[in-house]
Amino acid sequence: MSEYFFPKLKAVEALAPYRLRTTWSTGEVLEVDVEEHLRNRAGLAPILAPEVFARVHISEWGSSIEWIDAEFGADNVFAWATEQAGKVSHEMFDGWMTRNGLSLSAAAEALGISRRMVSYYRTAHKPIPRQTWLACLGWEATRPKQRTLPRALPTAREYALAHD
User: Fold this and answer.
1) Which of 97, 92, 67, 66 minimizes the C-alpha distance to 80?
2) This prediction's pTM
3) What radius of gyration, in Å, describes the C-alpha atoms of the chain?
4) Which terminus of the chain is less hemmed in, N or C, by CB atoms within 10 Å?
5) Domain 90-162, second-level architecture
6) In this structure, are residues 119 and 100 in contact, taking their beta carbons and an 8 Å threshold?
7) Distance (Å, rounded) from C-alpha 122 to C-alpha 92?
8) How far is CA 113 from CA 53, 141, 143, 149, in A?
9) Residue ranges of domains in the chain
């Protein structure tokens, strides 16, 4: 986990099988289901045992949650919990930038926001508003080539032709 990532994990508690309650430095308390992540990695199979899962704790340096010798980075857990709560995560935002080959400056220009705000969103220093995420998706769908904005979304046919 990057030292620039925010918020910080303050507490973790095992709930029903494969669900965790996480408390963050922002005051947010988010529940996250980690079953899919545990089942998709063979090395994590021992954690599926309820008595092992119940021993979850924050790592010594506070940058991850761990069981025995296995761990999940706090930034990943925060992203999973945010997405499961129906919000936009910093990982979704970073994925949009990566898919589209956008630098901080290019993403800022594309969205009409400051470079600093893009950095805040990318590192989870600020929550990403729904309208900003919708703007990301709209920009990706239209991919404006010039500084003028499109007046309408492309038809399905136009979109398919532009993305071949």
Assistant:
1) 92
2) 0.80
3) 19
4) C
5) Orthogonal Bundle (1.10)
6) no
7) 9
8) 42, 19, 17, 15
9) 9-84, 90-162
Whether 3 has a pLDDT exceeding 90, the answer reads: no
Give the model confidence (pLDDT) of 46-91 as tens digits: 999 999 999 999 998 888 999 988 889 999 999 999 999 999 999 9
Report d(CA 40, CA 90) in Å as an integer. Answer: 22
- Coil, helix or strand at residue 97: helix
Q: Do the bridges between strand 29-33 and strand 57-58 make them parallel or antiparallel, or are there none, so unpaired?
A: unpaired
| Token pair of 105 as six digits | 């400056």
Residue type at 70? A
Amino acid (one-letter) located at 84:
Q
The 8-class DSSP code of residue 128 comes to B
Is residue 65 a contact partner of residue 56, using CB atoms and an 8 Å limit?
A: yes
Hey, which CATH number is domain 9-84, 3.30.70.20, 3.10.580.10, 1.10.238.10, 3.30.2020.10?
3.30.2020.10
CB 22 within 8 A of CB 31: yes
Half-sphere exposure of 144 (CA within 13 A, CB side): 18
